[in-house]
Amino acid sequence: MTNNNALILSGGGARAAYQVGVLSAMGKMLPKHTSLPFSILCGTSAGALNATMLASYADNFSKAVSTLAFVWRHLTPDQVYTVGRWPVTTSLAKTLLSLFHLQNSETATALMDNTPLKELLSNHLDFSRINTAIDKQQLKALAITAMSYSTGESTTFFQGQPDMPSWQEKRRKGVIATLGVDHLLASSAIPTIFPAHKIQNHYYGDGAIRQKSAIYPALKLGATKLFIIGVSGNRSAKKWAAPEEDIESSAPSMAQILGQLLNSAFIDNLEDDINQLEIMNSLIRDLPKEKQALHQNLPTETLIISPSEELNTIAHHYIKTLPKNVRILLKAAGGSTSEKISSAASYLLFTPQYCRALMDLGYQDAMWEKDKIMAFFENQT
Q1: How far apart are CA 55 and CA 125, in angstroms?
Q2: Can you give the pTM of this predicted structure?
Q3: Element (H, E) at 14
């Protein structure tokens, strides 16, 4: 493995299906049976699940993406979280009791039970293949980020080559670990929705929370080129300077607030990251050559693929595919119309219809950017 390419897969619950569409298109572009074109994989939340699948098939990129696509195309909510009538009711009761310290403190509280996800991951992932890929130099590192509820630190667990050191600074740290299902469950535990997951003596939640920089772990692991797949509609046409349309104003519901909180955790930080990195690279390129050498640790090239359409809008069309009790729960949180709950629902819509729509969009968007993608890998193909 001679390259220092890093793939950054952000979180976003069901929105991560878009990443699979982009990866599927890349599998078609690159030579068949080629090995993983990235030496460093960094995933957060649902993005960590995708990154781990790629790592376990590092010897065959096309097989990795086809396996990943199969899983997502056949995904159903009951494979991710419990959708029975009483589990949601029980979880809601436990959450309310915890507000008054009437619930066992050893039990993590949440609105949904994601126990089925553990079985899904165990059935489809062979973690022993990660170490094999590292030994064969098909992979330098796989990194999974979670947030510690005990310390508030953004913690990146990584499995990589022996010479890769751990780090700790400014409420974020990198920990050498033998990765497993527990790390994925911790990284994808969306606060209040899925229960916190315990690793050793600490409980962890979704890695997007308090993650100041999604690209930071990749830089610490030695990445010099970044390939980022986002899950926000930042490429869609928007007229930010245009006056707002006159719409009926009302106080935001809990469902709307939850949707915006999830957006801020999963989307906003990544976009700020990219903007700052582009500004830094632009400034460095304008420096004299002798001074450019002082900034060799910064990536010289970045490529981002992100949705050309708003995923909230797509989610709006598929809300009826959600389990009935989940729709009831969202509406009970103040989402009286499907428009008001579409943002929050876009993270929970693990239904074949929605996931396939996002995968198709990702495939299409990647094909539109084929020239840029092939240029990114031109020295490898």
Answers
A1: 10
A2: 0.85
A3: none
Confidence of residue 372 (pLDDT cuts 50, 70, 90): very high
Partners of residue 156 on adjacent β-strands:
145, 174
Exposure b/e, 237-250, CB count within 10 A at least 16 = b? eeeeeeeeeeeeee
Q: Identify the residue with better confidence: 364 or 208.
A: 364
φ, ψ of residue 356 in degrees (nearest 5): -70, -35
Distance CA 252, CA 257 (A): 6
Name the residue with tokens 């690279």. Answer: 281
The answer to whether the beta carbons of residues 305 and 22 sit under 8 Å apart is yes
Q: Assess whether pLDDT exceeds 50 at residue 300.
A: yes
**% the chain with pLDDT above 70:** 73
In whole angstroms, give the CA distance from residue 235 to residue 312.
Answer: 14
* Tens of pLDDT, residues 238-268: 433 444 555 555 555 555 565 566 655 555 5
Q: Give 133: exposed, middle or buried? Use CB within 10 Å, 0-12, 13-18, 19+.
A: buried
3-state secondary structure 229-292: ECCCCCCCCCCCCCCCCCCCCCCCCHHHHHHHHHHHHHHHHHHHHHHHHHHHHHHHHCCCHHHH
